[in-house]
Design a protein that fits this description.
Layout (H helix, E strand, L loop, with lengths): L7 H13 L1 H17 L7 H8 L4 H9 L4 E6 L14 H11 L3 E7 L5 H4 L8 H16 L6 E5 L5 H11 L5 E3 L11 H12 L5 H11 L11 H11 L15 H16 L10 H4 L2 H14 L4 H12 L6 H10 L14 H7 L1 H11 L8 E2 L2 E2 L6 E5 L5 E5 L23 E6 L2 E6 L9 E9 L2 H9 L7 E5 L4 H4 L8 H9 L4 E5 L12 E6 L16 E5 L4 E4 L27 H6 L16
Parallel strand pairs: 1-2, 1-3, 3-4, 11-12, 12-13, 13-14
Antiparallel strand pairs: 5-6, 7-8, 9-10, 10-14, 11-15, 15-16
Length: 609
């Protein structure tokens, strides 16, 4: 077990989160304590129970009614359109079988929606993507509201699904929970190849047929997309926070080890129930220390900027108030230990083979950059997560000590030889407000830019200007009215190939937006999540064409260099086109209720924290 003293900055950031959250956390924990006593199937009436077990096998039926053994609620995000979620089709049967082998029972409590950002990228449906996180949390809440369960198993992988499920797990934090992933697809064509074809298509050098062929060679099988975007950053986070089993993030679907880990996860969460004597509710796992560990992991691996929004929202569901300053201070301390696409050429399969999360966690624990003394689904202490999952001679999952050294230092390095001394996330502040930038893939010489603004209200207008040859010289591309209140804060990373082409031509370019760029934020400096957003009259709505803007990711500043800037009126945009189509009309209440990006862009906790 690691006994290294935690670094003073880690301790200080954790302490201030706990201090500012004292009231909200105490209220949350008191609610969980009351629910543990009140909310369980022992209080269900005979009619309630009869409905709940009517379709169950006879052997399960009497166990559930007798309430003498644990009943596990399965919340699944299965659909067969998402490659990452297609493997979940077979999980419920396997989980039920594993539960019965322990004398327990399991039921599918309900399903939650799961949309694919890869399908909706650049399309109107992307405007529902961020809001789907809150819908998923509410749908999981409905599933577990039947009050029939002693623990919960959450089946989800991708972008908004895992954060939504964590919010639900926090809301039902008196229940033990486990997250059961499906793993990444096997590697296809290299990420460098894929990026090259995308840029060639953007520049008109290849046609749609060549682009489609490259995309289908990249996204070609069951499992998570293999680049280190939001989906795989979610999986990292679940291990760093102790919500899924050690070494389970990046095991490919439909393999013996993947199946053994699903069985082991089922067995372990049942052990954590009050019935089996090792009661560890999710509220104990979801501590301030766990969230600090997660932020450190995000920085050390160069993970998705989307997790900044999600961690704030997930923490708030557990009564904890996390702010952007916490990310900045932890980023400044945390070494960047991994280079995984888009921060390098390797994919997550290569990262896992090089030593993966177990190596990173061991190194960070040794450096005092993680809290070891945390509750996890694997037991007390983060040291469990330095262990790698393997199969024993009987095909069961076992854990052995992970790699002592990196097997490829172009992908993964020890903290003493890190790719850079600080993490990938920087908070920017200035007269434009507050934004986030991911610099792990941005070359140092491109992290500071001072150039005139070119202003757009729609990403399609940027693409049109590029095709017309209007994006000349050095400039800062301002894309506003892309925040959560304006249109749901869609990802804009389809702009990455265009801006990448211009940068490769020798132009100095950057992006500023109140929208998102996702885990695909790459080599072009992008100040994103700008708050207040344009729809709220934020300063980004005061920018005029040609204004000189300075973005300095080294000093953490974002400033419009215009003498009359403060006194200007904010422009107003016609957003009628965002209000309907592909279900957008159903989400008007979310656009009206949602909070700012700096508070997690949630409609559930819009005015809190």
């Amino acid at each position: 077990m690691n006994t290294t003293t935690v670094h003073p900055v880690i301790a200080e950031v954790t302490a201030r989160i706990e201090q500012r959250s004292q009231q909200t956390r105490n209220v949350y924990l008191a609610r969980m304590q009351q629910a543990a006593i009140r909310d369980n199937r022992h209080h269900l009436a005979c009619g309630n129970l009869a409905h709940a077990v009517a379709a169950s096998p006879t052997s399960d039926k009497f166990k559930i009614v007798a309430s003498k053994t644990p009943n596990l609620g399965i919340v699944t995000a299965y659909n067969d359109m998402l490659s990452a979620h297609q493997p979940f089709e077979t999980y419920p049967a396997l989980i039920k079988q594993a539960a019965r082998a322990m004398g327990a029972t399991a039921q599918v409590a309900g399903g939650v929606p799961a949309m694919c950002d890869g399908v909706t990228q650049g399309q109107p449906g992307m405007e529902l993507s961020l809001f789907s996180r809150d819908v998923i949390a509410m749908a999981a809440g409905i599933a577990l509201s039947h009050n029939l369960f002693d623990a919960a198993a959450f089946l989800g992988v991708c972008d908004k699904i895992v954060p939504g499920l964590v919010i639900a797990a926090a809301s039902f934090g008196y229940l033990p929970c486990v997250f059961l992933p499906a793993g990444p697809m096997v590697s296809g064509i290299s990420n460098d190849q894929k990026a090259k074809v995308r840029q060639q298509y953007a520049a008109g050098q290849v046609g749609r047929a060549e682009l489609l062929e490259a995309e289908m060679q990249s996204y070609h099988d069951a499992g998570t997309c293999t680049f280190y975007g939001t989906a795989n950053s979610n999986q990292m986070l679940m291990e760093f926070m102790g919500l899924q089993l050690p070494g389970s993030s990046f095991v490919n679907p439909n393999t013996p080890l993947r199946e053994a880990l699903t069985v082991a996860g089922t067995e372990q969460v049942l052990r954590l129930t009050a019935d089996l004597g090792h009661y560890t509710p999710a509220c104990e796992v979801l501590s301030a220390k766990a969230f600090v560990n997660g932020i450190v992991g995000l920085n050390a691996t160069g993970g998705s900027t989307n997790l900044v929004l999600h961690i704030i929202a997930m923490a708030r569901a557990a009564g904890l108030i996390v702010r952007l300053e916490d990310f900045s201070d932890l980023s400044a301390l945390t070494p960047l230990m991994a280079r995984v696409y888009p921060n390098g050429s390797a994919d997550v399969n290569h990262f896992h083979a090089a030593g993966g999360l177990q190596f990173v966690i061991r190194e960070l624990l040794a450096a005092g950059l993680l809290h070891e003394d945390v509750h996890t689904v694997a037991g007390f202490g983060l040291h469990h997560y330095t262990q790698e999952a393997k199969l024993d001679e009987n095909g069961k999952a076992i854990w052995v000590e992970g790699a002592a050294k990196s097997h490829d230092t172009e992908i993964l390095r020890p903290y003493t030889e890190a790719f850079q001394t600080s993490g990938g996330l920087v908070t920017l502040r200035g007269n434009l407000g507050e934004a986030v930038i991911k610099v792990s893939a941005v070359k140092p010489e491109r992290r500071v830019i001072e150039a005139p603004a070119k202003v757009f209200h729609d990403q399609e207008d940027v693409k049109a200007a590029f095709k017309a040859g209007e994006l000349t010289g050095d400039f800062v591309c301002v894309v506003r009215f892309q925040g959560p209140k304006a249109n749901g804060m869609p990802e804009l990373h389809s702009l990455t190939p265009i801006l990448g082409v211009l940068q490769d031509r020798g132009q100095r370019v950057a992006l500023i937006t109140d929208g998102r760029m996702s885990g695909a934020s790459g080599k072009v400096p992008a100040a994103i999540h700008l708050s207040p957003e344009a729809m709220d009259g934020g300063a980004i709505a005061k920018i005029r064409e040609g204004d000189l803007i300075r973005l300095d990711a080294e000093q953490g500043s974002l400033t419009v260099l215009a003498a009359d800037f403060e006194s200007r009126s904010a422009v107003v945009a016609n957003l009628e086109g965002n209000e309907a189509g592909l279900g957008r009309e159903l989400f008007q209440v979310f656009r009206q209720a949602v909070g700012s990006a700096s508070k997690g862009a949630s409609a559930l906790f819009a005015t809190e924290g």
